[in-house]
Design goal:
The chain is of the alpha/beta class. It has a single domain, classed as Alpha/beta knot, CATH 3.40.1280.10. It has helices at 19-31, 45-61, 71-77, 96-103, 142-162; strands at 8-16, 36-42, 64-68, 82-86, 92-94, 108-114, 129-133. A seven-stranded parallel sheet has the order 3-2-1-6-4-7-5, with helices on both faces. Strand 2, helix 2 and strand 3 (64-68) form a beta-alpha-beta unit. Helix 1 runs parallel beside helix 2 and helix 1 (19-31) runs parallel beside helix 5 (142-162). The longest helix has 21 residues, at 142-162. It is globular, with a radius of gyration of 15 Å. It starts with 7 loop residues before the first strand and ends with a helix.
């Protein structure tokens, strides 16, 4: 066993108004075994209906859920080493393996998925490394993109733990 600390992943959905999308992201995050889920810049139905439902889910599962107003708050308050921001409009095209290899080099990583098309905004991209999944020919939406990335990351971490 190496002296490397166990990697902590903070899954973030940013700029979200859909209650169902927020709930789906939480379910995906927790069902894949990740313990930290954060929603930043939450408004509309996501704020009024989605947040209470996700809070109930997190409490039931013994996991963590936070709602913050700005993406910069997530990075600061969770003391993140690396932030990867998924943006089809502004990110660098990267294969899943490349994204995972960057993530594996850090102890506390935030994976930020835009809750609406066009999110995060261009001025927020400087808070991390903007990328998008190379296999996509358009915006996948946060739940589909997160499923691909979270599964690949989980698979690599499990393989490392076996070795």
């Amino acid at each position: 066993m190496s002296g490397r600390a166990i990697m902590e992943v903070i899954v973030v959905i940013h700029d979200i108004s859909s209650a169902q999308r927020l709930i789906d992201m939480a379910r995906l995050t927790y069902s894949m075994g990740y313990r930290h889920f954060v929603a930043s810049r939450v408004y509309g139905a996501a704020a009024t209906n989605g947040v209470p439902e996700v809070h109930r889910l997190a409490l039931r599962l013994g996991t963590s859920f936070a709602v913050l107003s700005k993406l910069s708050d997530v990075i600061e308050l969770f003391n993140v080493d690396k932030t990867i921001i998924f943006s089809y409009a502004h990110g660098e095209r990267r294969e899943v393996e490349d994204i995972v290899s960057v993530a594996l080099k850090h102890n506390r990583i935030a994976l930020v998925f835009g809750g609406s098309e066009g999110a995060p905004r261009k001025d927020e991209l400087g808070l991390g490394t903007p990328v998008y999944y190379a296999g996509a020919n358009g915006w996948l939406g946060p739940v589909a993109e997160a499923a691909i990335i979270l599964y690949a990351l989980k698979k690599h971490v499990q393989q490392q733990n076996v070795e």
